[in-house]
Amino acid sequence: MSELEALRSIINESLDILQDELKAANLPDLFVSKPEMHPLDDLTYLQTPRLFETRRILLGACRMLAAAVQPPTEKIIEEGWAHQRSQALHMACKYNVAGVLAQSAVDQDKGVDAETLAKRFGLSPDPFKREMRMLASHHYFRETSEGHFANNRISMSLVPPNVAPYGIEYIAVWGLKTAHCVVDSMPINEWRTGGQLAYGFDTDMFTFIAKHPEYLSMMVSAMSGLYESQANGLTTGRHFPWKDLPPGTVVVDVGGGEGGLMMAVGKAFPHLKVLDQDRPEVGPAALANWQKHAPELLAQGRISFEPHNFFQPQPRSGAEYVYVMRCIIHDWPHEESVTILNNLRNAMLPSSRLLIVEHVIYPPIMPKEKTPLLLANIDNNQPYKEISTPWPMPNGPQVLELAHDIEMFCNFKAKERTPAEWDSLLGECGLKVVKIWSTRTEFSIVEIMLA
């Protein structure tokens, strides 16, 4: 069987399973053109294991099919122009174009002419029209007739308070300028990050943005929105078995920020207590967050804040503690990561567990054997487990996760890690992996104990 024939088979079978899963969940078919969001677009929606895996495999197969069909030079040039799409999306978000097009007075079949929109935003009509046309060619909007534009399902995700506009602001402003310097940061003797080269600072990034509120606000909005929206997928008992932790266990969220993940854990598992550790100045924001979203946890005394710098020894040690770090280690270079982990190791007992919530990446290697498509074998009543990627698709596919890995290098000279790299890092610190728990989000939970 050729690669093209195999991809066609994977796509056809996956589409059948996708539609069966949608029907079983009483969900409508997926679409692009209608100016409304699909229930699956709610980032808190927890998909069945088979539906999640089917979408993952199908998306990867479609990407590979596109790579097979498109002339290689055209693909390379198109991807090289990706910065133009990024800036066009930034324009659309900055002026809330999707929000304007979503207003009830807009005829969704006819849309609004570019000149009217441009004048509303104080922009030149011709370049605005051309930017919108480029976005429409990639299905971010619809061009309903020449020079007239309307929303579709994709653009509806650009309407605040959805997460996407905040992510685009970060990518198109900070990320693009930083990425411009990533190649210059790669020589062996260059200690500066892409961010340091781009913005001219010599501290770590967190110290720099703390002195620049415009960048701090942008990053907090982008990261918090994404991370908090995926808390539901991380706390379900069908991933890591939170429900099996003994009653009265204190889950210590090291560097937990405003405590969104711990809030979700506390709500889902009433037998647990949660402790959010972070810098003292984070405390008031965390308290305000809990008062607004989880007042019952405060009233029950099951959630609290403790000032702590994870570069200092961990003050909590005992059999009642489980330690959690979400998206911390990937923010720091190797030496700092070792320091953070050593501080936790020194507080851990043989029975202790550390849970690191981060992207775990897998090299996109094409399977040597013709692995079959196993979607039909997934039991939705069993805990989620990622299936093997069928031939001829490369392992993964993890387009977002691998891009995030490069973003960590740009900002911190840090990284996301493969399972082998986690083994290596933890081994330096006297720790070892118990299990890597896949989740129905882009993150995994790495369960760790003393070696």
Textual characterization of the structure:
The model has no long low-confidence stretch (mean pLDDT 94). A hairpin with a 5-residue loop joins strand 9 (431-438) and strand 10. 46% of the residues lie in helices and 11% in strands. Helix 1 runs antiparallel to helix 2 (49-69) and helix 4 (82-94) crosses helix 7 (125-137). The strands form two sheets. The protein has a seven-stranded mixed β-sheet with strand order 6-5-4-7-8-10-9, sandwiched between helices. It has a three-stranded antiparallel β-sheet with strand order 1-3-2. It is built from 19 helices and ten strands. It has four domains: 3-74; 91-156, Arc Repressor Mutant, subunit A; 164-227, no CATH class; 230-361 and 398-450, Vaccinia Virus protein VP39 (Rossmann fold), CATH 3.40.50.150. It is globular and about 65 Å long. It has 451 residues and is of the alpha/beta class. GO terms for molecular function: O-methyltransferase activity.
List the helices and strands and how they pair.
Blueprint: H1 3-24, H2 49-69, H3 72-80, H4 82-94, H5 97-101, E1 112-113, H6 114-121, H7 125-137, E2 142-145, E3 148-150, H8 153-156, H9 164-179, H10 194-199, H11 205-210, H12 213-229, H13 231-235, E4 250-254, H14 260-268, E5 273-278, H15 283-293, H16 295-299, E6 303-307, E7 321-326, H17 334-345, E8 354-358, H18 399-412, H19 419-428, E9 431-438, E10 444-450
Parallel strand pairs: 4-5, 4-7, 5-6, 7-8
Antiparallel strand pairs: 1-3, 2-3, 8-10, 9-10
Helix pairs in contact: 1-2, 4-7, 4-9, 6-7, 9-12
What's the gyration radius in Å? 23 Å
Runs with pLDDT <50, length 5+?
A: none
Shape designation: globular
Number of domains: 4
CATH topology of the largest domain: Rossmann fold
Structural class: alpha/beta
Number of strands: 10
Overall average residue pLDDT:
94
CATH architecture of the largest domain: 3-Layer(aba) Sandwich
The first-level CATH class of the largest domain is given as Alpha Beta
CATH superfamily of the largest domain: Vaccinia Virus protein VP39
Helical percentage:
40-55%
Let me know the largest β-sheet.
7 strands, mixed
**Distance linking N and C termini:** 46 Å
Strand portion, in percent? 5-15%
Spatial order of strands in the largest sheet: 6-5-4-7-8-10-9
Query: SSE string, helix = H, strand = E?
Result: HHHHHEHHEEHHHHHHEHEHHEEHEHHEE
Total helical elements? 19
